[in-house]
Amino acid sequence: MLESTQIKQIIEAALLCADQPLSIDQLIAVFDADECDRPSARAALDTIERECEGRGYELKLVASGYRFQIRQSLAPWMGRLWQERPPRYTRALLETLALVAYKQPVTRGDIEQVRGVSVGSNIIRTLIERDWIRVVGFREVPGRPAMYGTSKAFLDYFGLKALDELPPLAEIKALMEPIEAELAEAGPEYAAPLVSFDEADDEVQGADDPQPQADDADVMDAGQRS
Questions:
Q1: How far is CA 123 from CA 75, 145, 159, in A?
Q2: Rg (CA), the chain
Q3: What does pTM read for this prediction?
Q4: Does an H or E element contain 66, and which?
Q5: H runs (alpha helix) in the chain
Q6: Does a cis peptide bond (omega within 30 degrees of 0) precede residue 212?
Q7: 3-class SS of residue 106
Q8: Could you tell me if 195 and 130 are in contact, meaning their C-beta atoms sit under 8 angstroms apart?
Q9: Cα distance between residue 155 and residue 20, in whole Å
Q10: Distance (Å, rounded) from C-alpha 132 to C-alpha 90?
């Protein structure tokens, strides 16, 4: 077994080198069989998390594992490092994603019923290509329409361990108000009425579906550390 300091250094280096979150098992796989066990890896992660306190970055546990990321409060300053602006998504796409996230599993017809307008195939295709949503099954009705749910990549992108960490719908509505103004300025192709999620609660009745989430042991450990 390696010394705890060396285990911590190797795990830190692995997290810095990786281009995606790493699970406990992936981190342990970096070592030879007798160099690091699961308790030692968790202890190293605990130490790294504590050492990040007060720094501009943090160790974050998301659905796929652990990663280093800048603190959300610093995002406005960090965004100036990149000249290319992030992609701007239409309100229709954002509302579709929100409905899938909060009401999954849902069909395209469910989404259209709530929004009151048709959902273009390009919206569903874009969300699938972004790996934010996926087909989780088919509803047993004539035509067997596909039912959509969110993916682990969706949770990773938004810094979540599981769907129960999504903010309340009231907060989402408040967040959409400044986005509404920005999209209106961008042009009519981005504008559309905001969905009433209160109505969506009554209109979409989806069956329960397993939610993608982080490794149960990792989530439990995170809860004990918080």
A1: 27, 16, 23
A2: 20
A3: 0.67
A4: strand 65-70
A5: 4-17, 24-29, 38-51, 75-78, 91-103, 108-115, 121-129, 152-157, 169-186, 197-203, 216-225
A6: no
A7: strand
A8: no
A9: 13
A10: 15
Q: Do residues 134 and 151 make contact, with C-beta atoms less than 8 angstroms apart?
A: yes
Single-letter residue type at 170 = A
Check residue 36 and report its DSSP letter.
-
Instruction: Give the type of residue at 37.
Output: D
Tokens 């709530």 sit on residue:
114
3-state secondary structure of 138: strand
Residue stretches of the chain with pLDDT short of 50: 190-226
| CA nearest neighbour of 95 among 163, 198, 174, 197 | 197
pLDDT at 183: 52
Q: Which domains does the chain have, with CATH numbers?
A: 4-72 (1.10.10.10), 91-213 (1.10.10.10)
Cβ atoms of 44 and 7 within 8 Å: the answer is yes
